[in-house]
Each structure stands twice: as structure tokens, then as C-alpha cells.
Amino acid sequence: MSRLIIRKVAVLGAGVMGAQIAAHCANAGVPVVLFDLPAKEGDPSGIARKAIDGLKKLDPAPLATKDRAQFIDVANYGDGLEQLRGCDLIIEAIAEKLEWKLDLYAKVAPFIRPDAIFASNTSGLSIAALDAGLPEALRDRFCGIHFFNPPRYMALVELIATARTQPAMLDDLEAWLTTRLGKSIVRAKDTPNFVANRVGVFSILAVMHHTARLGLGFDEVDALTGPLIGRPKSATYRTADVVGLDTLAHVVGTMQATLPDDPWHAHFKNPDWLAGLIAQGALGQKTRGGIYKKDGKTITVLDLATQAYRPSAGEVAPEVLAILKNRNPADKFAQLRASQHPQAQFLWAIFRDVFHYCAVQLGAIADNARDVDLAMRWGFGWAQGPFETWQAAGWQATAEAIQADIDAGLAMSAAPLPAWVFDGRQGVHAAEGSWSAAESTLKPRRDLPVYGRQLYPEQVLGEAAPDAGLTLWENEGVRLWCLPARDARIGIVSFKSKMHAIGNEVMDGLLEAIARAERDLDGLVIWHDAPFAVGANLQQVAEACQAGQFDLLEKTVAKFQQVSMALKHSAVPTVAAVQGMALGGGCEFVMHASHRVLALESYVGLVEAGVGLIPAGGGCKEFALQAAALAARAAGGDVFPFIQNSFQTIAMANVSKSALQAVELGFAKPSDDIVFNARELLHVALHRARALAEAGWQPTPVQRAVPVAGRNGIATCEMMLINMQEGGFISAWDYRVAKAAATALCGGEVDSNARVPEQWLLDVERALFVDLLKTEKTQQRILHMLETGKPLRN
Amino acid sequence: MKQIQDAYIVAATRTPVAKRNGMFKSVRPDDMLAHVLKAVVAKVPGLDASEIGDVIVGCAMPEAEQGMNVARIGLLLAGLPNTVPGITINRFCSSGLQAVADAAARIRLGEADVMIAAGTESMSVMPQIMGNKISLNPAIFAHDENLAIAYGMGLTAEKVAQQWKVSREDQDAFAAESNRRAVAAIAAGAFKDEITPYLVSSYKPGEGGAVRVTERLCDTDEGPRADASPATLGKLKPVFAARGSVTAGNSSQMSDGAGAVLLMSEAAVKRYGVTPIARFRSYAVAGVPPEIMGIGPVEAIPRALKAAGIGQGELDWIELNEAFAAQALAVARQLDLDPAKVNPQGGAIALGHPLGATGAIRAATLMSAMQRGQARVGMISMCIGTGMGAAGVFERV
After folding, report:
1. pLDDT-based confidence at B1, cuts 50/70/90?
2. A711 closest CB neighbour out of B138, B152, B240
3. Whole-angstrom distance, CA of residue A146 vs CA of residue A151
4. If you average pLDDT over every residue of chain A, what do you get?
5. Do A729 and B241 touch (CB under 8 A)?
């Protein structure tokens, strides 16, 4: 647990990064003051204020909920510097100009408390050079803190120490960033562009070099350098457009200016076409045109040969695709290298040159190879870092291939591979640790106490496997296990299904796991990697529909409800540890657990309407219960006002865009735990289950007299629907499905504010669900979803 | 129509009209009402207020801050004698005009010599534009012929636009013209005489635990936009139908405001020695299918003119409430109303439409025009939710 207490953060600079870093602090509930220059006219803090307004419009959203903006105050360097005295962490994020930064440091220094941390988010400047310009009093509390864009979603933060930075302070800051902001930390050396950008930008330069050399199209290269090789969908050139071509050129310029002795220095220049686009003001997404341009509905791409935009196609040759599908990395790389196809040659070349570059630079830029690999995963979204990719491909064979290409003059640089590459090793990652070229040793992971919270940290290939725990029971759907080293009497149940879809095996498994937990354990945690669960197994549902087995389907729904009720009314506490998607039936299990521990990035929703159904695993019932509870505390006690929002949530199949929003939508409770670092989820869930048990867990009794909105409530929901249908916003079938949701939420066709038992609510939603399932239109929707992954609006 | 005596309008005034959640965001509708009641009484110096037979107040959502018989509360807050009675009436958008008609009727029947008609509405304090608690009758959905009861007003405007073939371009042009006229009228000071400025006090947390009170004198309608043009309006998306034509820009604005009218019999006029502004001539209201409620005035206007024995050609000033450009245009075309005479100073698209207050507010506008000599025979008309139209005819004295 982080012991560093940061009550308030200041962010200097309300640009793209500054404002979003401020937003993420606000997400964590840490008050922030966002500074910028005094505005020339109007509100002196207008620049920062405008930046906050801008945050609300960005997609993906930097703010976990819009109301988090309330934790960001605005200020300016003209009259606001006094506010710095109240800040424990000051992050500078202004433009990358050394003299501007040093001017600002001189101005703010008198207002920074001696116990505060001062850090720069520079991505390109030398931390030592910044440190040299700092007033003496601040120097041992100064470091580099390099976030990646967008900071809420990119895990990586590089921390860079100077010779004077207090080591304990840096450890505290690392712990705080890890737990409070949920970031993944790599300690970088103070070399230009640090670790991730140094390798990542080199990789882009290599891609550009070989694109031109082999005469490939930008769209073709993007097809090759995306998910096919474990990199983000936006691949290379699309990413450049998103980042901004001017920004990319600037970073390349930094490498050119600051790395004169780098053996690849000759390649640190922007290609003519890039300079040309920038000169025309085509900077990418922000100018609505760059390497790609949207032309009406078609996306076009710049063709270097004709210097004109043409429709983007980007196809990968079948023979190259076949090579990439090879599951044996050694074979795959050998085949890529051997193939005469330009696409294959291209892929081999970009990997080769990045491997080559990383091997040569490892000692200078990073403590060890693990840091490089993790930096590329966390900062650039690569599925695997360069060293682990190399190691998987067969270290020695690949090293020899690289050397041969260097010798043949095919590589981008003639720099020799370092001697350690050929010392007979099988790789750089081993059970004992990862290779440090600077210290010629294997370095284990650092053992800061904060990492004790990560029971299953993200691992690179070749690391020692973590404790897999003790299996208590399992079936095809789930594994019930525990971690005796942590808490032998808290069970963990993990789904085994693909995307953690909920089928019969999972439900049977959960029922058994709950029964065993009630008999043998003190609590039960549902945990596995993301996603939490994508909902019911639609394939099973579709098959049963086609076979006309509606009795069976009704029994399946009844079982769904049985699992939900078992989770809710269990004799031991049940804790759902949620990360990623928790949809449909997954969401219903989440709602029924005794308690929820949610990673910030939790996308929770009842999406049944998309396939022409309504929630029937107790989801409608839970919202009806919530409304009754809220109404009991409201003047008048009328239930309907508290149904309206959940009706819209279900009818529109709204999914939360964060854990905080899941609370707003009613899928989670304000008393639930929100964990910023998903790697800490299991730790927190185990402790929460233990705490609930120790507090003398008493299951919630089943409700016997729930007031419902009834017939008037259903009619009032219908008013919204008739207007949407007549306005052409929804189809007649949407109306029918939404009316079923309204009916379930309102407790059926009973008098308004009539009181019904909880089981009645379950019966109503189950009957409506089965009625819908029997219809052709709903079955069409289910089949369409299975075939295309998209909802059908019939 | 048989009547004992004529009813005369001797004074009328109103607040400026605020945008919803605008300058009157925290102003209570009962305070707005008290304000205009006090002001309209003050326009007749020497009036013995205890002679006021009744205060009839129109309000379309008479609940919460404007509930509890807001008429009686407003008149007491205004400092009128507690012997003066008050009644709140509701016919949705025509409530304010209905109040004037009812007040006139009491005088015409000889039941009273001095009456006040008013309207007040705050759409800011309503949590939803349909009131605090929406609850529809299940019977509406049991029979198709009742479905339109549940239609939103915007949807009915789409139906009128379809049936009367009012194009998007025409609606936007009409909306732009409404704004142009309103902006010009404000610039010319045409509303100055009819508006009684309202001093808004706002109470916010201040330094050192003190409540910071700020005051702002509001004297100008907030709605009109000088930058509204067919081009800018043309960019707005339809709100009520996916492929519709009714937008936020060619619909009336949601607003806050109040208006009041003082009426007297001829005997009272003589006794107090006041110069009446206009004689109340007639009022009519009629029903139409709920799904095309906006066409209501087409039924009401001829009836009102007939009752007054006045030809349509004699009308020289028509306040036709612009609930939506679609319906206002359909009505004007159907009845062949002269566009120059319809809303010469702009309408609800620019000036706003505080539902039940609008009739009383526009009465103040018409009286002001008559006092300036710009109108001899004038009319106020509007469509009404769930399918009605109302029209009232006034003649300058």
C-alpha cells in the first residue's frame, strides 16, 4: 500500500497531456489544480478552464464520469502560484522547450513546499539538464514522470531519477502511481526519449524505411503491422495520424539532435513525404487529413507513387498470412526471412532491425530487458516486447540471422551485435530475472511492498510462473481454488469458458462452488482476467430455440436466476472482482454478489435488448428492488421516478464506460471498491471477502413486500416508446422488447405501488423473457448477433 | 353573445421572458406572479384593490413552486387585501388567455366590476417539462385511437408538417424571421412599456461562510438570437423524428415569465376615471385530433371572429403563438393570415413560451401595440396540447 499521502496535485500546463493527467488524478478522487498561462483577455484562468471543457468532449473519455471534473480547479501562473503551497505533487507538462521549462521552474520554485515532489512529464528533454536549472532546494525532490497518451488508458509511466533524486521518494511515488492511479511503472535511464519512445520511434523509423525500400503502400503496411503481429489496430501510419504528424516529426527531430553517436543516426530523419504533408498542414486526425483522409464515407490513403489519395485497401497476401498464422514463432520468423514476398521481407526486416537496435542500446537505455519489453507493451500496446519476441523465435538462430544480415549489409546499421548476445544464452528472460546489459547479470523484479498487492503481475515470456494456487474442485465451466499462502479459507472461482461466457457448465459450477464455500470456506471471490463475462452463451440459446426446446430454455433461465439468488443470499460473503466487460448475465451476477470490487476499467451493462431480450437473471428484479428502496426514502414514496433511469439503461442497452459510471447506472453500489490497478483486484477482493466474513456476515433476506410501479408505470414507459417509434427512432420490435423490460421493472400488470414478493419479480421477468425467445424476430436478432457480432434492428 | 356590459382592459404588464435555466433560473413562479400583480395594480393609481372581484391565474403545470393555488398565494405575496380571492386555471398553453377571457366574462355577466387575469409559469423549476410526476393511464395504450394522448408536442408538429406539407426550409425561414423581428423590436424599445423589470437576487456561497447576494435587474427578453439565420438554423438536427424537420431552432423556447391584465366594467372605468386600452370582444376554443394539436387555431380563430362579428380582414395585429414553426405556418396558410400582421415583433420561437403565462404576456404586448396606435383590432391565438385551439379578439377603444 502506498504510504505517500498526496492530498492535492498541481499540473502545470493545460495542453493535451497536462489536462488529461489532471483528469486522471480527478478520477482517483485526488483534487488537482490545473495551471496555464494567464489569458490575455477575460478570465485569467480561461486557458485551463477551456481545457477542462475540452476533456468532456474527448473520446475515449479522460474522465471516468463527467462529474469528476469538479475535482479540477483552474489557475494561472499570474495570480495563482500561491495555490502551489497546498500541493504535494507538482507535475510539469508544458511544451518541450528547455528554456521555457527552466523559466517556469524559477517562477514556481518559491511556492513549492520542501516536502513536495516536483516532476516533469517531458518526453524528450534530459532530466539532468532540467535538474541543472532547478533551484537547489528542489533538486532532491525532482524526477521525470513520463505518462503516455491517453494517460487514463495507457498503462505506462516512466520514472526517471537524477543523481540527486531521493531513492525513497521515488519508491513512494512509484507505489502511489501504481495503486492510486493504476499505472504500470518502468524506471528509465535519463537518455533521450527514455525507453518506450526510443524503441517505439525507432520501430516507426524502421517501418518507414522498409516501406519506402520495398515500395509498399501505407495501408498495406498498416494491415501488416497491426493485430497480425500483436500490435494495436491503428498499426503504424494510422497511429501516426492520431498522434499528429508534427508531433512524430518533433520526436524524430529530438533523436536527430540528441543522439549524434547513435549508430542508426543516419536514419533519424523525417522522410520527404512526411515533411511535405506537414508543410501542407495535413497533420493527421486533428486537421482531418494526414497519411489517411476521409473522403465522404470512404477512407483514402496517400499513395507515394502518384502523390494523390486513393481508397484505402491494404491487403495481406495469402502466403504471408499463412506464415503469420504459424503458431511456432521460430518457424514463423524463419519462413518470413526465407520468403521472397516483399510483405514477408518487410516484416522480417522490421523485426530484425528493432531486435538489432534493442540489443545494441539495452545497456544504455534500460536497467534490464524486462523493462524494455514491458515498456513496449504498456506504452505502445504491443502484445509482446522485442526481447521476448526474439527469445520466442529462438535466441541463437535469430541472433545468427541478424548477424548474417548485418554482414550482408542488409540491416539498417552495420553496428555489431553486443558480445553477450552470443554468449550461448537461450534468451534474456529467465526464472531468476532478466538480463541487464549494463551490469552483465540477471536482474529480478524489484520487490517494493506495492507489488505484494499484485498476485498475478503482468509477466514477460520466460519468467518464473507464479503460484497457481490449490484447486479445490472443478468442472468444465469453472475452477474453484484458493491461495493458501494468502487465505486458505477464501475460495476463488474462475470461469474457464471463452470470453467467460456463461453456459450451463459455468452455472452448474457456480452453484457447486457456492455450496462448497458455504460448507467449507469463509467467503467466495469470483475472479479471472478480463473480461469478467460477456453474458449468456448465445450459441446454446440459439440451438435450443431452433430445436424448439422452450421448456429447457425456461429451466435454463430459472437456473440463471437460481445462481443470482444463490450469490445474493449465500451464507458466506460473495465478492465479484470485475474488470473489462461484464455484460448481460455477467452483469446480473455482478449485481447479485454480496459486494463488488471493480477495476476502474469496468464496462458493465445489461445488453439483452440488443438481441431482442430482457435481463432475466434477476437484473430487472434488482433494479425494481433498488427503486423500491430509493422510493422508501423519498417524500411520497412513489416508485416510478426511480424506475425511469434504469428503464432507459436497459432499453438502450447502456454499458458503463468506467467503474464509477457503473455505480451511477446502478450496476454497482457506492459502497463497492473501485481499484485503479486491475492487477491488484484479486488482492483487494480476497481482503474484502475476509473482512466481510470477519464482520459477521449475515446474508440479505429475500424481500417479501416490494412496492412496484405497476400498470401506470408501464404506461408511462410506453409514452416514451410511442414517441420514439412514431418518430422513427425505434422499430416496432424495439418497442415490444422495451415494453417487456418496462413490465418487468414495474413488477407486471399490477396496481401502482402494489407490494409483491421478490420471487414474483423473478417470475415476471422470466415469463417475459421466454415469451420473447419464442418469437421469430428475437430469434433473428440472436442469430444475427452470433453471425456478425452486431445487433440487428429488425 | 348576450352580455350585460362590456369588459375593458385598462392595464397590462409582464416580466421579461427568460430562457429556461436562464436569468430566472432560481426565481419562483409565485414571486413572478406577485411581481406582475403588484405592477398591474400600480398602473391604476387610486384603485381600491378590495374591489377586485377575483384574480384568475393561468398556469399549465400548477404544482410544486407554482402549485397550491398559486393565484391566491401570488396575490397575498403581492400585498393585495386578503379579502381578494384567487383561482388558478389550466388549459395548458392557452391558460393565460383563458384567464383573460374568464375575467372578462365575469364582468360581462355583471358579476364583477374589477378583475385581474394573469399567467405565470417557470419551466426552470419543473424537473421535467411534464411536471414532477408523470403518470400515464394504461387505457391510452389499450386502444389505438387514444395513442396520440401520449404523443409529445414535437411529434405532433412533425405530423402537422407532413399533413400540411410545411418544408424544413420554410420552417427555418419562419424561425429566422421571428428572431429578426424580435431582435429589431427589442432594439427599437418596442417592449419597454409593457415590461416591468424584475430584480433578481441570487444567493451563492461566498467567502468566510457568508452568503454572497448579488442582484441583477432584468428588463429584456432573453430568448431572441441576432445570429439566427436560415443557414445556421438549417444545421440543427431534428429532435422528435429521425427523418423529421422540427428542430430546437424552429420550435418555441422553453421559458419562464409572468403577465397580468387589469379589466374593468364601463362603470368602474368611469368611477376611476381611467382611459381603457381595449374592449374585450370575444373568445373561442375548439378541439382537434390530439396528433395534430398544432392546427387548433384553424378551428378557434373563425369562431372567435364570428362571435365578435369581425371580418378576418379587419385584424391588423395577430399574436399567433409559435409553438412550432410547422404549426404556425400551417395555421397561417390554412386561414390565409397576412404574414406581415402575424407576430410583427416576433413570436415564441424567439421570445419564448412559458406555457400557461404566454396568453397574459402576449396580451400585454397587444395592449402596448394598441396604445402606440399600431393596432385597432387584434387577436391572440394559440394551439393547445392534446388537441385544442384558442383565440381571443380585442378592439382598441
Report:
1. low
2. B138
3. 10
4. 95
5. yes
> How distant, in Å, are the alpha carbons of A449, A492, A708, B347 from that of A741?
48, 33, 14, 42
Which domains are assigned to chain A? 9-188 (3.40.50.720), 196-443 (1.10.1040.50), 470-778 (3.90.226.10)
Question: Phi/psi at B198 (nearest 5 deg)?
Answer: -115, 130
Q: Do A715 and B147 touch (CB under 8 A)?
A: no
The pLDDT value recorded for residue B126 is 80
Name the pLDDT band for A542 (thresholds 50, 70, 90): very high
B380 membership: H or E segment, kind and range: strand B377-384
Q: How far is A462 from chain B (nearest CA, A)?
A: 56
Query: How far is Cα A389 from Cα A377, in angstroms, rounded to an integer?
Result: 12
Q: Are the C-beta atoms of residues A28 and A64 closer than 8 Å to each other?
A: no
pLDDT digit string, tens, across residues A299-308: 999 998 888 9
pLDDT interval class at A86 (50, 70, 90): very high
First to last CA, chain B: 19
Query: How far is C-alpha B300 from the chain's CA centre?
Result: 16
User: A639 Cβ partners below 8 Å, 6+ apart?
Assistant: A627, A628, A631, A707, A708, A709, A713, A752, A753
Partners of residue A752 in chain B, C-beta under 8 Å? 135
pLDDT 10s digits, B106-127: 999 999 999 999 999 999 988 6
Whether B93 is catalytic is yes
Question: Of the listed B35, B59, B93, B218, which one is catalytic?
Answer: B93
Provide the Cα torsion A750, A754, A758, A763; round to 10°.
Answer: -10
Taking the Cβ of residue A716 and every Cβ of chain B, the question of whether any pair is shorter than 8 Å is answered with yes
Residues A89 and A108: their CA atoms lie apart, in Å, by: 13
Nearest to B278 by CA among B342, B382, B195, B369: B369
Q: Is B150 within 8 Å of A718 when comparing Cβ atoms?
A: yes
For residues B66, B69, B72, B76, the Cα torsion angle rounded to the nearest 10 degrees is -40
The whole-chain average pLDDT of chain B stands at 96
Contact criterion met (CB below 8 Å) for A237 and A221: yes
Taking the C-alpha atoms of residue A343 and residue A325, their distance in angstroms, rounded to an integer, is: 14
Q: Does A727 touch chain B (CB under 8 A)?
A: yes
CB contact under 8 A, B138 and A715: yes
List, edge to edge, every strand of the sheet that includes A156-160.
A72-76, A32-36, A9-12, A89-92, A117-120, A142-147, A156-160, A184-188
- The DSSP secondary structure of A138-184, one letter per residue, reads GGGGEEEEEE-SSTTT--EEEEE--TTS-HHHHHHHHHHHHHTS--E
B353 catalytic? Reply is yes
Other CB atoms within a 10 A radius of the CB of residue A230 amount to 13
Chain B nearest C-alpha distance from A45 (Å): 19
Pick the more confident residue, A36 or A242.
A36
Comparing A165-174, A197-206, A244-253, B115-124, which segment has the lowest mean pLDDT? A244-253
Give the closest of B134, B152, B242 to A728, CB-based: B242
pLDDT the model gives residue A515: 98
If one counts every other C-beta atom within 10 angstroms of the C-beta of residue A785, the result is 18
Select the residue of B135, B147, B155 nearest A716 (Cβ to Cβ): B135
**Residue B148 has what DSSP assignment?**
G
B314-327 pLDDT, tens per residue?
999 999 999 999 99
Residue in B138, B150, B244 nearest the CB of A727: B244
For testing the chain A interface, which of B129, B130, B136, B137 should be mutated: the one with the most A CBs within 10 Å?
B136
Max Cα distance, chain A (Å) = 86
Residues B141, A728: C-beta atoms closer than 8 Å: no
What pLDDT does B128 receive?
63
Alpha carbons B347 and B334: distance in angstroms, whole number = 19
